[in-house]
Every structure is written in structure tokens, then in C-alpha cells.
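Q: Could you fold this chain for me?
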Amino acid sequence: MKRNLLLLFAFALIGLSAKAQTSWTTLNSGTTANLYCIQFLDANNGFAGGGGNGIAVVIKTHDGGNSWQAINIPSNFPVRSIYFTSTDSGWAVTGDVNSYTNTGTIWVTGTGGATWNSITWPGTPYGNLSVQVNSGKVWVGATHNTTSTGQDVYYSTDDGTTWTANPASIDWIWQYGLHFYDSMHGWVAGDNQTNGLINYTADGGTTWTQQYTLTNFLYGINFQDNMTGYAVGDHATLLRTTNAGTSWNAISNPLTSDTLYSITLAMNGMIDLIVGSSGSTLWSSNNGITWVTGPSTQTTQSLNSVTNAALINGSQFWVCGDSGVIITNSIVEGIPAVNNSQANISIYPNPSDGNITVTQLGIRNYELGIYDMLGNEVYHQPLSDASPSTINVSFLNNGNYLWEVKSDRGTIDKGKITIAK
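A: Sure. Below is the predicted structure, expressed as C-alpha cells.
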């Protein structure tokens, strides 16, 4: 049995190293406030939220995180969760997780955060912790409600005009993690100040079933599809289900004392990533069966939330944490060069204002392609001169792009470039 576990671990390392895993890059968020949530709609457009000391911070980027703009919410309590459905439309929830007074508020914007409106709703929770939009429903998970009914999960089907409370059977639970696969099937993970809990609904929140309880508290939950999901929590707790939560199994991992806060699952079958306290990360390249620690994040701050976006041939990750930390990393499936002696392509400067120079050693009759992060070709140019070539791509919008050089023998080299005009 021990030998089999060692083999699984070895295969996980091989699988991870087969992907081109770069080092973490620290981004300038423009804030020193703790950041608790982050979401990217695509490789360029993202949002993050947090706060503390009487402010509610929300920031946004349109260039993959290279620059951030403050779009703060007029609240005295931190932003615990955000969910944007477009670059204009989004939801946020605020509250003090440690408070025993009514601090929970729901906010909505239709202007990309230029203005925020608070929502009138029947809940009076100590604090709101999670929000998600799925199939026309807005779901909010909270801490214990101070009214006698005690509902901790609400949903709205009319953009927040009216709200339906879920049963009091899930009262007194700090609902840190919330995930709905569709309008009917959803899971919430948290704690009741004594045990960690996972609850499940199959009828859109009318009834809930407790699926799992353990002594460790839970802070994040995510599902790959309607059957396979993961939950994470303190003392490096990592749970996995392959039957929609009918049974949950503990997954061993190299961490022991770290608190795991958030998990994102690969959109293209490549890499799953978990983040936690003291800058810790866990990576899996085999659909969550085995996990290994990743490259150093170069921070000891608590990492509170992780999101990703699909690249042409991989994933880009963004992580936010305490003291305004935002870091990014990309995992790209390696494509062997046609000839190692030919794989000496350089495109610079990077970032670029739109004027780039392509330098290659001894290659003639090749083609340069530039792609956006969804894989759409946005520039194509045949080149025949082996000397450096200067190209103007200033028509491209600011953001991250991938480039690829091909000859008649196939791919020679590839990389990433940022346009920042």
C-alpha cells in the first residue's frame, strides 16, 4: 500500500513538471487592505474585494492585473465575497465575521463599480460571507441571523427585489463557502463554532441535508461538475467527493498545520490549485487525486482566495491575500520545439506599448501568430528575414496575449506578452 502511494505521488510530480509552471509574479494592487475574494471573468478583466479599519475595498483590472482601479463600496465593513456576471454587472456582500451585531449588507452595481447600491432584504445576519449567481438566482450565505428564524442562506430570482429564506435547519452556521452547480443543486460549507459542516440541497434551497461533519472548520467548497467536488479548511483539511457529496473522503497532502481557504478547479483539465495561510499552495495535475506543494509564493501573508482563466493551452491563476497581496502564475502545456537549436525566439520589450521586436537566430520563412487568452488569433504575419523584425501591434487592446512562432516543420517557440500602452 505504501509503495502504491509513493508511485501516485511520483506520477503527480511528473504530471506537474510536464506543464510549464512559471514562478509567481507579485502584482501591485494599490491597497494594503486585506483582500478576501478575487474573480476574473477572462484573462484581462478581474475584480478583488476586502477591507478593514472601517473601509470596504473593491478593485478592478482590465489588463490581467498589471494595474488596478479602486471602486470601493460605501460600507464600514469589509467585502467578504464578490460575483460579477459581466464587466458592468456584479454583486458584493459585506460584514464583520467576528461581530455579533447586524453588519451584513448586500450590494449591487450595473456600472462596473462606479456606483454601488445596497439591497433591502429580510436578513439581519451578523455578516455576509459568500455570494454566487447561477441560472438567474442570486445566492447569499451569511453568519448566524439575529432574528428568531435564524436562516443563514437567502436567494433572489428577481435581481434582489424579493428574497426567499432557506430553512432554519441550517441556522447558526458561518457559511464561508457556497457553490451552486445549477439553480437546484448546491452546497454550503462552514462551521457552527464547534464543527465543520457541509449541507446540500437538490430542490433549489427548499430543503437542505447535512452531508458531512468533522471537527475541523471548513472555508471553501467548489465542484468540477455535478458529481466531483472539494472542500477545504483548517489543519490542511482537504475533502473530495465523486458522488455529489453522498460520501466525502479526506485526501492526504504535504501540508499539516496550514489553514486552506480557497480552491479553484481547472477549466481545461490541467491544474487545480488550493491556497491557504502563510503563503501556502497545493497543486494537482490529475483531477485532485494527489496534491503537491507548488513553487514559493514569495510571501508569508495569508492567501484567501484564488481564481483562474483558461489560456490557449493552460491556465492563468490569480491569488489575493492579506495586506493587499495579489500574485499570479501561469501553467502552460509544454510544446516541444522542432529543433532545440532553433528555439531562440525573443520578443521584446515586454510589457510593450505596441511596438515589438522579434529576434531569432538563423531562422527563415517562419510565421508569427499572436492570440488572445481565449485562443483567438488577433495577429498573423509571415516573416522571411533571419534578422530582427520590428512589428507594430498597437491596435491591440491592453492586456495579456500569447505568441507562437511556426515553420513548415511545426511549432518552434511560444510565450506570453503584455500590451500596456
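A (continued): The mean pLDDT is 83.
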